[in-house]
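Researcher: Next sequence.
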Amino acid sequence: MVESDVFVQALENLGVNFFTGVPDSLLGGIIEELLTRKLYTSAVREDEAVAMAAGAFMAGKIPAVLMQNSGLGTSLNTLLSLNMIYRQPCLLLISWRGFEGKDAPEHLVMGETMPQLLDTVKIPHRTLSEQTMVDDLRWAAQTFMKQRIPVALLIKKGVIKGLHP
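Model: Next structure:
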């Protein structure tokens, strides 16, 4: 399991310097670390966070948006009609709720379909793992800068240390 402070530092080392999103229990450790470092700006909704990230990019920042996968549905219109069309990249850190059918019922459909949904809307994605974290982050940064579109890292439960064991 990757410690939250190590993950946040790795993101900062890549140049990510604007973080926003909507709280999620699987991302709680990351958000706590970002709050400690005074790097996190909360959003009310995921589409708002994506729009804030676009504004941050236009202001010269490298943005990341944290959300659970249900928020992907909420933010699709903004991602497609703003970020994809106008080449406003952001790193999407998406907790994979409902992975392999293991979660509350409301997470199962999105958990099963999220990778195909990302493929359909042409958002490049990878599933983060402890073993491949360095390569995954490097890939995300290179894809982000080369294509200038949103790039998603999918985070399963237990990969990054949360607030609760």
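Model: Residues 69-84 form the longest helix (16 residues). The two ends are 11 Å apart (CA to CA).
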